[in-house]
């Protein structure tokens, strides 16, 4: 006796379910691969920008001194950031909990990640290994890849952001940033973070 209509229908249902599960697994794998690729690229962008910023600031400090570097930094940092954004295809910004430029204030997601970085570092985490990557859905329904990487206080940063900023440097900073809060840092503390974003599909 041949298979019943019900048995045939069940067989097709099982095959359809298997195909759907295989498609879902394939899509999930592709999504994971895409996310990993974006994270690797974002990590590269953050490191490239960090190296370029440090190089320019160190050169300016040696050539022009701390006071002149304050004014140069006001243009160097945004220019390098915009160049990195155009070069790599990410929206690139820098943000912090203690701001020098109010325009760099963190949005709610960035604030959460900055506080998370601060807690992790206080608990002994290696800052070099810290990063945060997520895909979020915007209010408009777009999928947005977001990535953050800590910026730590290095020796060159202490001149303008440390605990013993010279008075002439403070005065120059106040000319450009009268509401500056980004001082009093110690070597190795969290200064802020690179924040990258990219629409999924780009």
Protein described:
57% of the residues lie in helices and 15% in strands. The N and C termini lie far apart (57 Å). It is built from four helices and four strands. With 202 residues, it is α+β, with helices and mostly antiparallel strands. It is globular and about 50 Å long. Strand 2 and strand 3 (143-152) form a beta hairpin. The chain has a four-stranded antiparallel sheet, with helices on both faces. The protein has helices at 5-88, 108-122, 155-161, 167-176, and strands at residues 91-95, 132-137, 143-152, 190-199. Helix 1 (5-88) crosses helix 4.
What is the element string, with H for helices and E for strands? Answer: HEHEEHHE
Count of discrete alpha- or pi-helical segments spanning 4 or more residues: 4
Helix content: 55-70%
Spatial strand order of the main sheet: 1-4-3-2
Distance between the termini: 57 Å
Poorly predicted parts: 5-30
Largest sheet: 4 strands, antiparallel
Indicate the proportion of strand residues.
15-25%
CA radius of gyration is 24 Å
The whole-number mean of residue pLDDT values reads: 86
- The overall strand count is 4
What does the overall shape look like? globular
Structural class: alpha+beta
Top keywords for this entry?
202 residues, alpha+beta, 4-stranded antiparallel beta sheet, 4 strands, 57% helix
Quick structural overview:
The protein has helices spanning 5-88, 108-122, 155-161, 167-176, and strands at 91-95, 132-137, 143-152, 190-199. The protein is an alpha+beta fold and 202 residues long. It has a 4-stranded antiparallel beta sheet, with helices on both faces.
């Amino acid at each position: 006796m041949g298979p019943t209509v019900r048995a045939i229908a069940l067989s097709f249902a099982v095959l359809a379910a298997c195909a759907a599960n295989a498609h879902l697994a394939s899509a999930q794998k592709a999504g994971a691969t895409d996310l990993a690729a974006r994270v690797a690229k974002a990590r590269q962008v953050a490191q490239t920008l960090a190296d370029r910023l440090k190089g320019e600031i160190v050169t300016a400090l040696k050539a022009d001194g701390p006071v002149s570097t304050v004014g140069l930094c006001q243009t160097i940092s945004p220019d390098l950031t915009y160049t990195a954004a155009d070069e790599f295809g990410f929206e690139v910004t820098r943000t912090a909990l203690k701001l020098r430029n109010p325009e760099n204030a963190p949005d709610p997601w960035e604030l959460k990640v900055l506080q998370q970085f601060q807690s992790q570092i206080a608990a002994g985490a290696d800052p070099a290994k810290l990063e945060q990557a997520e895909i979020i859905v915007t209010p408009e329904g777009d999928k947005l890849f977001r990535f953050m990487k800590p910026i730590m206080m290095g020796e060159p940063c202490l001149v303008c952001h440390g605990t013993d900023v010279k008075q002439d440097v403070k005065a120059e900073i106040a000319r450009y940033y009268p509401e500056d809060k980004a001082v009093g840092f110690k070597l190795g503390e969290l200064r802020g973070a690179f924040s990258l974003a990219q629409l999924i599909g780009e």
